[in-house]
Design goal:
The chain has about 350 residues and is α/β, with parallel strands linked by helices. Among the domains are: about 90 residues, MurE/MurF, N-terminal domain (Udp-n-acetylmuramoylalanyl-d-glutamate--2,6- Diaminopimelate Ligase, Chain: A, domain 1); about 150 residues, 3 Solenoid (UDP N-Acetylglucosamine Acyltransferase, domain 1). Helix content is about 15%, strand content about 30%. The protein contains 4 helices and 39 strands. The chain has an 11-stranded mixed β-sheet, with helices on one face. The protein has a 10-stranded parallel β-sheet with strand order 8-11-14-17-20-25-28-31-34-37, with no helix packed on it. A 9-stranded parallel β-sheet has the order 9-12-15-18-23-26-29-32-35, with no helix packed on it.
Length: about 350
């Protein structure tokens, strides 16, 4: 990237205070930035670093005035910096455009305009890949898979037959979409596999982290709503439905046939049993275990999960148990002493 401060300000819809002609060639954190870099300041506790940073310029909120450093004042410094980073990332493509000679295409594969298909990527029969999508090396795309436009699938992702991937989706390395759901019938101590014949459907603008597993449905579909973001190492079982704009954090596990509403946050290592419903706007804090359905707009903690304030009270009582134990011992001694005197 090589942009003047004026050009960057136009990109982020900001106002330059200082020399507009300064040339920016990179971006970094406020402590790590050096000459030629642009950085950002959104957290007031780092305000003292504004004039100490070695960055050539800083993106700030519109409240910032007292600085000798050239700044771009914006409504949202964090979002503005994201746009700058995206500009740098687009300069460093990191993939080969077009279809690599060692890519393997099945019968009747349909590729849109400007599709990139890396070395040893496989697209099965009747697969469809939309315009400007990027498929990195080693990706497996099964038969009858549909992938939308502007989607990025990083190396070594497996997308099994008939899965549906929307537009502007990002899937990171090692993820498996459309693997069989965990379904067995146990008869006389032997486990008999239940065929999983459904599909997985991923909505638009979804991002899926590394080493995520999303199982195909037994019947029908497992679905992830538009705008949902899934962290690394998440397990989503068969027939799960996740709404729009949810955040699913690392190591969360969602059991089969669970329905999750819109704007739900599941923090790290949250576990959900199957066949329950989670309402819109619910937040479940880290390491909580959810064993029953939850209405909308609640914050839950603990295992089993309960309303957060109730959980905090339980924790407070737990922390006081040693004192309560000592108090009970003391009271027991006093009672025994009184009983001894009364028996004389």
């Amino acid at each position: 990237m090589r942009k003047t401060l004026k050009e960057i300000a136009e990109l982020v819809e900001g106002e330059v205070i200082g020399d507009k002609s300064i040339v920016v060639t990179g971006a970094n954190g406020i402590k790590e930035a050096g000459p030629g870099d642009i950085t950002f300041l959104s957290n007031p506790k780092y305000h003292s670093l504004l004039n100490l940073t070695s960055a050539s310029a800083v993106i700030t909120s519109r409240e910032i005035f007292d600085t000798s450093k050239p700044v771009i004042r914006t409504d949202n410094p964090s979002l503005a910096f994201v746009k700058v980073i995206s500009l740098i990332k687009s300069d460093a493509i990191g993939y080969v455009k077009g279809v690599h000679a060692n890519a393997i295409l099945g019968k009747n594969v349909k590729l849109g305009k400007d599709v990139s298909l890396g070395a040893y990527a496989i697209a099965g029969d009747n697969a469809r890949i939309g315009d400007s999508s990027i498929i990195y090396p080693g990706v497996f795309i099964g038969n009858d898979v549909s992938i939308g436009t502007n989607t990025i699938i990083y190396a070594n992702v497996s997308i099994r037959d008939k899965s549906i991937i929307g537009n502007n989706v990002i899937i990171h390395s090692g993820t498996v979409i459309g693997s069989d759901g965990f379904g067995f019938i146990t008869i006389e101590g032997k486990h008999h596999k239940i065929p999983q014949v459904g599909v997985v459907e991923i909505g638009d603008n979804v991002e899926i982290g590394a080493n995520v597993t999303i199982d195909r449905a037994r019947f029908g579909k497992t679905s992830i709503g538009a705008g949902t973001k899934i962290d690394n190492l998440v397990q989503i079982a068969h027939n799960v439905t996740i709404g729009k704009n949810c955040l699913i954090v690392a190591q969360a596990g969602i059991s089969g046939s669970t329905t999750i509403g819109d704007n739900v946050i599941l923090a790290g290592q949250v576990g959900l049993v199957g066949h329950i419903t989670i309402g819109d706007n619910v937040i479940v804090t880290a390491q909580s275990g959810v064993s029953k359905s939850i209405p909308a707009n609640l914050i839950l903690s603990g295992s089993p999960a309960r309303p957060n304030m109730e959980h905090q009270k339980v924790l407070a009582c737990t922390y006081n148990l040693p004192k309560l134990f000592d108090l009970v011992k003391e009271l027991k001694k006093r009672i025994e002493g009184l009983e001894s005197k009364n028996s004389l």
